[in-house]
Amino acid sequence: MSQEVLPEHRENRRKVSSHGFRPNATYQSQKLERECRKNWDLFYKRNKTNFFKDRNWTTREFTDLLHLDSNKILLEVGCGVGNFIFPLLEVCQAKYIYACDFSQEAIKLLKENPQYAEDKMKAFTCDITTDDIFSAIAENSVDIVTLIFVLSAIHPDKFRRVVENLHRILKQDGVVLFRDYGLNDMAQWRFKDTNMISENFYVRQDGTRSYFFSDSEILELFEGVGFRAQQNSYVHRQTINVKENVDVKRTFVQGIYQKT
């Protein structure tokens, strides 16, 4: 599925295309991979629960979440400190919720939330690019998986393994709800050449990383593993901060993918 470039995004695309392909030296890239968990732990130690806003928008964008009931099991990959699952519990119920994150510090903070209850959910540390997840959850046992602003933080070489694991964990006809950074998003053209690891993959000052996807790339990734796309498209949103006089247009890729 291709996207016509909107006029207001053409200047951003020119800025991104001006990034010379200047990957960091191999040893720097490998060092970032080795220190990925440490950098996310430091991020949460520094920011605690104050960095990310609650994701109250998810039930509006993904109506499948409103169909959660006592028969449905949900897995959130990359749960952070609970900005998705705790607001979700206020508007709908599930039979059980699994929540995993790469960062031990994030899981520690999530479990300190007074809303956390073992009879409703299980939060645990997991590297979703390995078989870790299957020590906590059986294959073919989950109805809905959310993968929201998570895949972009993972090395591109491991994208397929992540999606394969999600396919294994889902029941037949189960779905993945996906949103992540889109190609030519405002955040991409703010990076400097020196932040580039590889094409469309960047490192932030704190050592965490971010990849920017095309809609066709995500579609090919999920369909290649055995999913059928119910939705796969760019979404454009406008972020306005009146106090700081900031008006920013954002570009994301959003999709719903069903296990077939």
TrEMBL record:
Composition-biased stretches (Basic and acidic residues): 1-11
UniProt-annotated stretches for the region Disordered: 1-21
GO biological process, one term: methylation
Claim: Methyltransferase is one of the keywords in the record: yes
Signal peptide limits: none
A GO term for molecular function: S-adenosylmethionine-dependent methyltransferase activity
EC numbers for this chain: 2.1.1.-
Top-level taxon in the UniProt lineage: Eukaryota
InterPro entries assigned to the protein according to its UniProt record, in alphabetical order: Methyltransf_12, METTL2/6/8-like, SAM-dependent_MTases_sf
Domain Methyltransferase type intervals: 75-176
Entry annotated with the keyword Transferase: yes
Keyword list, A-Z: Methyltransferase, Transferase
Broad EC category: transferase
Pfam family of the protein (one): Methyltransf_12
Function: S-adenosyl-L-methionine-dependent methyltransferase.
Family per record: Belongs to the methyltransferase superfamily. METL family.
Protein name: tRNA N(3)-methylcytidine methyltransferase
Organism this protein belongs to: Phlebotomus papatasi
